[in-house]
Amino acid sequence: MVSLINEAFKKAKYANRPALLTYTVAGDNTKKKSLDILKAISTHADICELGFPHNTPIADGGQIQTSAYRAIKNGIKINDVFGIAKEFKFSKKTTPIILMGYYNMIYQYDENKFLKKCKSSKIDGLIVVDLPYPENKSFSKKCKRKGINFIQLVSPTTSNIRLKKIIKDSHDMIYYISMLSTTGGKLKVSPKKILENYFKIKNQNKSKNVVIGFGITEKTIKSLKKADGLVVGSAICKEISKSIKNGQNAVTNVTNVVKRLKNKIK
Amino acid sequence: MKLKKGIPLIDQHDQSGFWGGKFGGSFIPETLKKPVEDLTEEFKKLRKNKNFIKKRDHYFKNYIGSPTSFVKLENLSDHLGGAQIWAKVVSEANGGAHKIYNATVHALLCKAMGKKYIVGDTGAGYAGKMLSMAAKKFGLKCKIFMGAKDIKRQKPNCDAMKKNGAEIVPVYSGSQTLVDAVSECMRYWVSNCDDTHMCVGSTVGPNIFVKICGWSTAQISRELKLQLKSEFNKIPKKIKLINCVGGGSSAYGFWSEFIDFDKKQIELIGVEAGGPKKSKLHAAPLSRNAKIGVLHGAASYVCQDKEGQINKTESISAGLDYPGVSPIHCFLKDTKRARYTYATDEEALNAHVMVTKFENLNPSLEPSHAFAEAIKIAPKLSKDTIIIVNSCGDAKKDRDILKERLGNN
User: Fold this and answer.
1) Looking at B190, B214, B238, which one is the last position of a domain?
2) Which of A182, A32, A9 is CA-nearest to residue A96?
């Protein structure tokens, strides 16, 4: 089966640039608005990550927390998240979509039911922030059987032995967390150092697509363009908050941010 | 699901860190894997190290003031009739609550690992106050995360933290109580785990934190076992050990030596926060049948909605105002070794009033929940039944709430 995620990376590589991955929270600030944003930014983004918001997010910084609380307050439910994804895929058949969130939501939905629903909504991948290796072994196997990419996370604290095992167990994409931080932190490590660590991972198995995330903004994105892919989340959520506050059109503003990000890595 | 005998409950988990196959574990972001593994190794090593044990016992005795006393509440027993009511006055410990045991051990671990900064969460403010004391004692820089609502309602403890040189970081997200403080503290640790040690204030969180905290508070029941023998010449035939349960650190510490006993001889009763009588909100996941969920890195019974969003809780007692509970209490519940119930805000307040009226004891709102259950059941029990309540905190911190709810007395 063709992996849309793999295809997206291939396409970017062909254009001699990293893939651009965006992260937005489903339902931020309404179901319709978040779908509109998703559709609009996917013109420039290669892969879209869609967060299913949780009210006790232990690894997210202020910007994404704000987006998540806003979406929950506006009544977003997990089935709405699937609904948004499904509708998105209906119009953007080849853009991969990755759901991202915390394990309790999956646990309450039931792992098997959740994956079935992912399949029918045409979800391409999953990131579960608080389900690390090896705890995620059985779930990631289930994902593989369903043809859904389970995306392993790797951080600067991951030991070499652990890294080898994680890469061995990974599917098409690996997510490297650039620094010790929650999402949206200020980049406190030099791009050179981040890329050094990045290549340690990449060189273990060149067939895996490795992306870098955390702390990536319009200012920092260019310095990391050697990576297979770069994820921008908090900077986008921040733009949504700003637009709402100023009574401006979030769809236009966010699309412009993503467009600028893309231009920086072309 | 079965309890094993002769092995401390904190060690009865499987390789993945689950008690009874489903409670606990370590649901943590990748970044925390390494520091959690390092801490696990260090603790495994140190708890077998004679010098470390010697050091711990030295500080428990000379700094915390072990043993805390074990007294009969004659007047209260006479007034209620029925069972004899006793109290283990853990609030005599330095700082005024059991939280000092865990804080001291974490400070020692932090030192041993060569980290200079220590951070912790707090609800009632006792965990924070004690951590700030221990940090000061051992020369560590300390940051305490506390919900903005709790900062307001537990001012005396906040004053103490500041006096000890700790920085209080107010948390404004969510319900602005303990649950948000723990989340924010974990987030801080994610960003600073290279030079900072995290202390989780109760027997909750990723597996290793449950173990360290339980290992620390177990001192309470070690003392009680000796005190029972010296008071009664042997362990009496009918005992009920009543303890409040928020995260469950004092209850585990109070019970750990007695879990192997037959429950007909020693019954373990945990009392959760039932919240205001007229409110639907509470903080009683065990006694009000919450579903299993994952919160703050561990699976336990959690007050949550169908989707897995964590519910708001409400309790007059900040220390019990938490939607989750220790995995080891979930295990004790499912194996039916302990019985869990709840007391409402009003019942806890009434119990506080009654205890302070009859006895020279000033239990905080947390153990007042346990006293409420003791007061409820004592009259129905025989004279040879020994009820022991862990009076694990002092009500000085509740000054403002008590004044508001009871007027000037």
Assistant:
1) B214
2) A9
User: Based on the domain organization, do B184 and B305 belong to the same domain?
Assistant: no
Single pTM value for the model: 0.97
Give the helix/strand (H/E) hosting B302: strand B298-302
Chain segment B27-52, per-residue pLDDT in tens: 999 999 999 999 999 999 999 999 99
What's the ipTM?
Answer: 0.96
What the block records as the tokens of B306 is: 């169908």
- Look at residue B173 in the predicted model and tell me its pLDDT: 87
| Chain B residues inside the 8 Å CB shell of A129 | 29
Query: Chain A interface, mutation test: which of B16, B30, B188, B309, most A Cβ atoms within 10 Å?
Result: B30
Q: What percent of chain B has pLDDT over 70?
A: 100
What burial class does residue B133 get, using C-beta atoms within 10 Å of its C-beta: 0-12 exposed, 13-18 middle, 19+ buried? buried
Q: How many domains does chain B have?
A: 2
CATH number of the domain at A99, please.
3.20.20.70
Q: What is the pLDDT of residues A202-249, one digit of tens each?
A: 999 999 999 999 999 999 999 999 999 999 999 999 999 999 999 999
Are A107 and B308 within 8 A, CB to CB? Answer: yes
Dihedral sign computed on CA atoms, order B324, B325, B326, B329: negative
Mutate to test the interface with B, among A67, A114, A130, A175 (most CBs of B within 10 A): A130
Domain extent at residue A191: 4-265
Domain stop point among B166, B196, B214: B214
| Parent domain of B110 | 18-60+99-214
Task: State the DSSP string of A131-191.
Answer: --TTTTHHHHHHHHHTT-EEPEEE-TT--HHHHHHHHHH--SEEEEE-SSS-TT----S-H
